[in-house]
Sequence to fold (651 residues):
Amino acid sequence: MERTIFAMELCFRWDASLHQTLREHVKSHPLALGHHEKWVAYRNLESDLLAHLERVERGCWDYFNDDQRAKNDYAMWVHGMMTDETARLTPSGPVDAYRGDAPRYLTFTVAFLVVQGTPTDSALFQLCDIPEQALWQRASFIRILQGLGCVNFASVESDLMYLIPRDEDWSLTSEDLSQSKFEYLRPLY
Amino acid sequence: MSAEEPFERDEHVDKPGIIGARWWQEGLAQVDPVARRSALKGILIGAGALVGVGTVIALASSSSSAAQKVEGADEDFKTDQKPAIDMQREYGWNFGATTDALVFDGKSTAPFDKASLASLSLDLVPANAIYAPFFVRSLLEAPTALRKTTPAGDPDTFTPLKDVLVPIFTAAMDAAYRRGKALANLFDAAHHDGTKSIAVIVDLPGPEAVAFAAGASSALDPVFLFDNWPHPKGVVASHLALAACAYYQPLFAAKSTPKPAPPLFVLDRSRLAAYSDDAKQFDNRYVGRVPSTPTLAKLGISRVLYITPTDTDRELDDLNDDFVYTVKQGAQLKLLGATTLASGVPVATPDGGASDGPQYFYGGDPTTHEWFWIDYPWSTPYTPKGQKPPVEPTFTRTGPSYAPIARPSPFSTGAMSGSLTPPRPIAFGTVPVVIAATTGVILGAKMSRSGSWTRSSSWGGG
Fold:
């Protein structure tokens, strides 16, 4: 059975209420749930992400319909989550909202492993059919997030979501983001 | 794993630096629907490339091949619930009811160019870019959408919605338009400061909500939140809201809304319409997605004016949690019955058009109009030089003192503090579809009785 992958990671300038909202999305996602419940949960999540997109500074998204690449990349996202690949290993200290010279960041990632050839796969393909010059435009991310309601989770074998950090005093710094491991997160415009 | 909850969490991380999880749908790993789907031919070109740089994939499916598969196979069938709009996007707006017609009340005789429907979602986009993330374009995209796959039970021919859509203009829309103009007058930035901190939510029956937005658009920025598609058997008659959008499209396209302008979030009050019989109705209901209080605060908005049909109406269940939360967070929320914006003379007939006829005022009279800002003290009344200050309307108004009360419902938690993640009923906004049990291929809508699968007696569920 062949697979397609869709993934998106957004890097937001730190916002306490956004962080709380996103953490709640992860924590409240049930251990077991049905197709429609999952669809609703993601729609709510997408709505919150969209509402804060003005705070997104970097991001990336992927759609690959090569089976091997899809499975490998999905495994990579899972591996990154389980091994703290991009999370901090030590605290960065409390966020000082008034210290404008030291911005902090959070990232939120979602990925879907989709059955290839399904209507959902087809809809994702069309949704992600974005001209090369617009790949890193904020408007393209908005379009994709707005359109993710097309995902029918009956056609999704697996999904993941993670938030970095869980705790405020482990938020990412500019120095963190300048490391090569974050090169895949490109500045949006 | 259960049939109702096929997704199970199998990986989980919860550390100070990261929190996340993975869910797995084991059932999908046990069958190979793609390999068995001889009726559907997946064509892959240039596999492996990012779509954004030019990969093309096509899901090729013809109704004839699908029908042959069904008719020639000895398969059992089952039913499952699928999101209604997903099915419509894939199988057409009239999925399962291709021979049924939409009914339009109040067809307009004004000139209408069908080709302009192609730009409907662009013409109705908010004028101010900061509201673009909240704009829901689902309904506005429906007219030009084409069927991607032909269900086995539906005819080969498909009529796009744009070919059957006609603009409407009714007396109720005319009144709503004038009410919108009255509100726009009250929000005229030249005479009133403080309006930038206000978000307005208009929650009227679809066509009237659109008309109100059109009337108000000279001072407020309409942000449409219509998140469904019309259907001949739809619970929500959203084709009427769409027909009203078509009527006012030239006005919205003119983009007369100033920048900046307070947002006017536009909801169709029939979005949660009662639904009971899935054999006769298509559940195209949806919930309103109004920005939350923290989100509005980022836009500098701390006041919400919620407009209902009358002063005694209340918010629908899907907004209750949000409204309770809004008030608990210290933001101000007040209600305005649309009928408090009224004319002292009878409403003109629809033939009068939108530009003629009586002017509407808060309290129904020019002398009471500016009293609005005393009932809703977020600005000060404007009194032109040499004129008398406003007088109080004679009728009772309860909207200004309205306070939302938490109530449990299928769409709300009933929590005293409200919630940003209200519940949704299971199977809300979904439709029963017939699926070939062994392959997982969707054969059509259960409500469609013309499908070849109807000869089978082995439907499950439903």
Remarks:
- Chain B touches chain A through 77 residues (CB under 8 Å).
- Residues 171-186 of chain B form the longest helix (16 residues).
- Confidence is low (pLDDT under 50) at residues 31-75, 449-462 of chain B.
- Residues 114-413 of chain B form one domain.
